[in-house]
Amino acid sequence: MSTKIDPRAIVSEKAQIDENVTVGPYAVVGGNVKIGSGCVIDSFAQVLGNTQIGKKCHIFPYAVIGNIPQDLKYKGDESYLIMGDNNVIREFVTMHPGTESQAKTIIGNNNLFMVYSHIAHDCLVGDNNVFANNATLAGYVTIENKVVVGGLVAIHQFCRIGSFAIIGGCSKVVQDIPPYSMSDGHPAVVHGINLVGLRRAGLATSKITMLKKAFKILFFDNHPFDKAKELLKKEFPSSEEIDYLLNFISTSKRGISK
After folding, report:
1. Can you give the pLDDT at residue 1?
2. Active-site residue numbers?
């Protein structure tokens, strides 16, 4: 199968497009764009700026990927948007590159970005995440892996969202959301563990029980975090899940939603 570029598409001669790419009518591909094999750029979609798209990504109509950031600090410096493989980018999604010279927005693999979701400048997005309609990331947000961001969620700049977290629709996120958690509210607070998500991920029942107990100590027994962390270390042997949870909390800069 060879690359198929509709004659009505506007594709720069300088764009680097691999084999087996499909570009639909009236799509726009800029000169500094690289598109990996197997990608589909639907009609009226735009891929601009210093943007690199991995393999087998599907960009749906009217999405705009790589246009300049919505940041008053941006002064026209060269910055980048780098995307991995197997991402699905639905209609009207917007993604922006970094703000300062050589800065990057990085998107991982196997993510689903539903209609109107927005990834702002300098964000880091991991793998296997789902962003529901109108999920909105401000600048410098980090989303780890296997996160579900509900519809109409707004995440404040510099926040981190830990792996396996789920955030309920219409939530306002102003602090870090811990891994394995289920959060909701305005502002968002932790309501417990993401039980359904952890079961779907195949986490052992013993580990889910351990995380339930850990969350009770951390978020529901009214201990200061420093004391809660010490209690966790005494209560549970070192494990991948507990160590990750404690490290996430210890390295938080915006504070943890509690």
Report:
1. 62
2. 121-122, 139
